[in-house]
Design a protein that fits this description.
The chain is of the alpha+beta class. 44% of the residues lie in helices and 17% in strands. The strands form five sheets. A three-stranded antiparallel sheet has the order 1-3-2. Strands 4-5-6 form a three-stranded mixed sheet. A three-stranded antiparallel sheet has the order 10-9-14. The longest helix has 17 residues, at 259-275. The chain is elongated and about 85 Å long.
Length: 321
């Protein structure tokens, strides 16, 4: 077929594509010889070769959706999108960037990875959800399939916290998936998930006192109630620095991400802000894993609080139960 003829029928070809992505064998059935497809995918041609036997009907870098369609075509209709591409389609933001599309297929199929399509054969095919026409592994499976390929703790922690705080899945669902699925690459996410579970428990008082002492800040108080100038109750901070009216709260993600308690945390923070109180919020895991950063935050907050006039705050020093 002459190239000019192919150009004329391109609108017709696009109707048989998925977002402009189409198999070379489908093009041949539609009357476009393999030799023509090959020439059109060469440098300077009008089309783009994406994966073996799969073409984009444009000379352009593929969009995320086009990569997904190509990867699913490469998986021969038996694949499910998992990993970070699936996480993004669930609405997650704090996931590592990348152009790979991780696809799960049943173990009996023999399809290899190619280009940006990472094919994983598994006996543990997941529950599937379809969003905007794309089959996705259930959230807990998709997220763990992503993080088990990372070797750095910080991005793994960020992804796990985001999925929990957004209610995309629960700690129990992640733990169940870890215990029933593939064990490959799960040591780091398993450790971090355990740390996050530990955040549910209260932090030992000695741990925060030690951090505060290392920051070399004035002696703080604990178990005090603070009130505004009209005598309205504000909060009972975990740690209170009275000379500059600064509060330090150890806020567990597990506690405060639950909608009821999250709302209460926002209300408390609004009361702090209205009263002019400087507040530092810290996760329990930060005390263990990044004490130097916590110390720096405390020092910076104290310096900022000292520069402004101390608000009119009164304190009740009767110990609370």
């Amino acid at each position: 077929m002459a190239l000019s003829n192919v150009t004329r029928i391109e609108p017709y070809l696009r109707k048989h594509s998925r977002y402009g992505v189409i198999r070379a064998e489908t093009l041949e059935k539609l009357g476009v010889p393999q030799s023509t497809t090959y020439r059109r995918c060469q440098p300077g041609g009008r089309w783009t070769h994406l994966l073996p036997g799969i073409v984009l009907l444009a000379r352009a870098s593929p969009t995320a959706r086009q990569r997904v369609e190509a990867a699913l075509m490469h998986a021969d209709g038996v694949g499910v999108v998992t990993g970070f591409e699936a996480a993004r389609r669930y609405g997650m933001k704090d996931v590592p960037a990348g152009q790979t599309v991780h696809i799960l297929i049943p173990e009996a199929h023999r399809i290899n990875s190619a280009g940006f399509a990472v094919i994983e054969r598994t006996i543990f095919m997941p529950e599937t959800r379809v969003i905007d026409g794309v089959p996705l592994a259930a959230p807990a499976r998709a997220i763990l399939d992503g993080v088990r390929r990372i070797r750095e703790a910080s991005p793994v922690r960020g992804v796990l916290i985001e999925c929990l705080e957004s209610d995309l899945c629960t700690h129990e669902q992640l733990s169940t998936e870890l215990n029933t699925g593939s064990r490959r690459g799960t040591a780091l996410p398993r450790t971090i998930l355990y740390e996050l579970a530990e955040d549910i428990r209260s932090v030992p008082e000695a741990e925060t006192i030690s951090i505060w002492k290392r920051a070399r800040l004035p002696l703080p108080e604990r178990n005090v109630k603070i009130f505004d100038r009209e005598g309205h109750y504000i909060a009972t901070p975990d740690t209170w620095c009275d000379d500059v009216a600064m509060a330090w709260e150890i806020d567990s993600w597990a506690y405060h991400s639950r909608k009821h308690y999250y709302a209460k945390t926002l209300e408390r923070n609004n009361r702090y802000a209205s009263a002019g109180i400087v507040v530092v919020q810290t996760l329990p895991s930060q005390l263990r894993n990044a004490p130097a950063s916590v110390i720096a935050e405390l020092r910076a907050a104290y310096a900022a609080a000292k520069k402004r006039a101390r608000p009119s705050i009164t304190v009740s020093r009767q110990a609370t139960a």
